[in-house]
Amino acid sequence: MKKQNKVWNMEYGAGTNCSLARNIFTVRTLLLSAYCLLLSIYLLPTVAYAHKVSIYAYAEDGMVFAEGYFSDGTRTRNSLIEVFDAKTGEKLLEGKTDNEGKFSFNIPKATSLKLVLHASMGHRNDYTLSAKEVKEAMGIRESGVRSQESEVRKQTEERSSRLSKSATPMTIASGVSSAEIETIVERIMDRKLQPVITILLKLKENSEKPGLTEILGGIGYIIGLMGIAMYFKSRRKG
Amino acid sequence: MHISEGVLSAPVLVTGALLAAGGVAIGLKKMDYEKIPEVAVLSSAFFVASLIHVPIGPSSVHLVLNGLLGVLLGWMVFPSIVVALTLQAVLFQFGGLTSLGVNTVSMATPGVIAYYIFNLPIRKGNNSVSALAGFAAGVTGVGIGAILVAIALISTGESFLGVAKLILFAHIPVMIIEGIITAFCVTFLKKVKPEVLEVSK
Predict the structure, then answer these.
(1) B2, B46, B48, B98: which to substitute to probe chain A, counting the most A Cβ within 10 Å?
(2) How far apart are alpha carbons B167 and B148 in whole angstroms?
(3) Number of separate helices (H) and strands (E) present in chain B
């Protein structure tokens, strides 16, 4: 066996023109790559993915709720989140995520907010909340800025006066103001929508994991590059 | 071990890119026809390995395999890793295209070091010596890689010792697993196909 190996070695080392050696080699390489492929497919459903962080945030009730996670679903615990004014780039506040990768804070300014998550070891990602989203979240409840609040109140009052003027007086007549109705509806909606939001977040998280297409695509690229490299090297040789 | 986009400052990124370009050039020069498929197969292995998450430890870490690639490829580890990292950045959003140079240097350099120290004992030693050298190569690959990442991160204002400790600590499980995988691979290859371990000078 050892001798055979040696002979083969010699052929392989000396005779680049020896087609037999080359054929054996390519067959082995193909087998190896096929094995690699099979292994990766076999491992797919059981392995989790790592090494990319994502951050997602939404604004509600004058607060911003942010959540950070690695691409394998692990939460980014105890990681720094910095909040910037997306327009001026001014840093507004910073804080750390809790054990579930969550971080929430009162909206510091009615503007578009950029949240930057720094997970350990050079991982970083950001998420920008639009000014519209932030302002909506501030205007709805009391916790927001006064001017916003009064604007909303004015709007609702206008609406209710319009309603009372109309032919059918509806529920306002029974002593419940439309602002109160709005609050109640919102509270119920919040409760009902919570699971839906959770599901959406999960879906978003899953869609960011690399799938089979990406993996096979990448391996395909590598095989293609190998072909190109071999083509050029073989041409140079003559 | 992939540094994301937007973390490092421009001088660090440029230095990393230049060093990586140099390494890739040397690697391409040393790469002869017969070695190309091996470089490609190992590149694929590296590409896929980053998806294998190691669930032990405080942070989210994955296999790197740079020690194994280094021992088998020598300087050719640079082209092999740069291809895989580019694809990881484009397809998985791991790391980033601007930090490609720094990431290549931090993962390929330990491979080259592992090659110079451990390739000879793996080839010439008896079974247990080569297994041990393989294990050490796997550990070295990840260990030195972690230190290089820490060095790159100094420029962001994080203290070197703090980051180095954190990264090394997080990668201890990976180092051990990589050591075992590398030891297994080299002893197997030595028995089945010893010429794979030879790298042209």
Answers:
(1) B48
(2) 10
(3) 7, 2
Q: What is the pLDDT of residues A77-114, one digit of tens each?
A: 778 888 888 888 888 888 888 888 888 888 888 888 88
* Average model confidence (pLDDT) across chain A: 71
- pLDDT, tens digit, 9 for 90 and up, residues B13-22: 999 999 999 9
Return the domain boundaries, chain A: 50-138+179-207, 143-176
Mutation for B interface: A12, A24, A52, most B CBs within 10 A? A52
CB contact under 8 A, B88 and A48: no
Residue A57 phi/psi, 5-degree rounding, is: -145, 150
Q: Is the ipTM of this complex over 0.85?
A: no
DSSP secondary structure of B42-88? HHHHHHHHTTSEE--SSS-EE---HHHHHHHHGGGHHHHHHHHHHHI
Among the residue ranges A72-81, A186-195, A209-218, B141-150, the one predicted with the least confidence is A72-81
Q: Under an 8 A CB cutoff, do B91 and A51 touch?
A: no
pTM for the model stands at: 0.67
> Is A212 an interface residue toward B (CB < 8 Å)?
no
Q: Which CATH number does the domain A50-138+179-207 belong to among 3.30.160.250, 3.20.20.240, 2.60.40.10, 3.40.50.620?
A: 2.60.40.10
Distance of alpha carbon B130 from alpha carbon B124, whole angstroms: 8
A133/B157 Cα distance (integer angstroms) = 33
A109: closest CA of chain B, how far (Å): 25
Do B195 and A12 touch, CB atoms closer than 8 A? yes
